[in-house]
Amino acid sequence: MLACRKRPPENNLCDKSDFLRELKAEIRTALDKIQQANIAPVDMAQAAIGPGISVYSRYERITDMNDNTVSVRTI
């Protein structure tokens, strides 16, 4: 099941360093919850994609130091 919602207009841009800082702050809590849910260790990488994409999708655009758009693959 896929749930979509509009992005808040005030959160449309972010630079890569701020994104990584926000991701690191939230991913630990998310991984702890996944571990408590008894997800098999072999499935942890796949399960961690959701919380990471949750942070990434908050922004219309994430930019590097040269103001180029950073894709999810390059992060």
Please provide a written account of the structure.
The protein has helices at residues 16-36, 44-56; strands at residues 13-15, 61-63. With 75 residues, the chain is mainly alpha-helical. α1 packs across α2. The chain starts with 12 loop residues before the first strand and ends in a 12-residue tail after the last strand.
Strand neighbour order, sheet with most strands = 1-2
Helix proportion range: 40-55%
Share in β-strands = 5-15%
Number of strands: 2
Q: Residue-averaged pLDDT, rounded?
A: 87
Question: How would you sum up the major sheet?
Answer: 2 strands, parallel
Order of helices and strands: EHHE
List unreliable stretches of 5+ residues: none
- As a whole number of angstroms, the C-alpha radius of gyration is 14 Å
Number of helices: 2
Shape: globular
- Measure the end-to-end span: 26 Å
Helix/strand class: mainly alpha
Briefly, what is this?
The chain is mainly α and 75 residues long. The protein is 45% helix and 8% strand.
SSE layout:
Layout: E1 13-15, H1 16-36, H2 44-56, E2 61-63
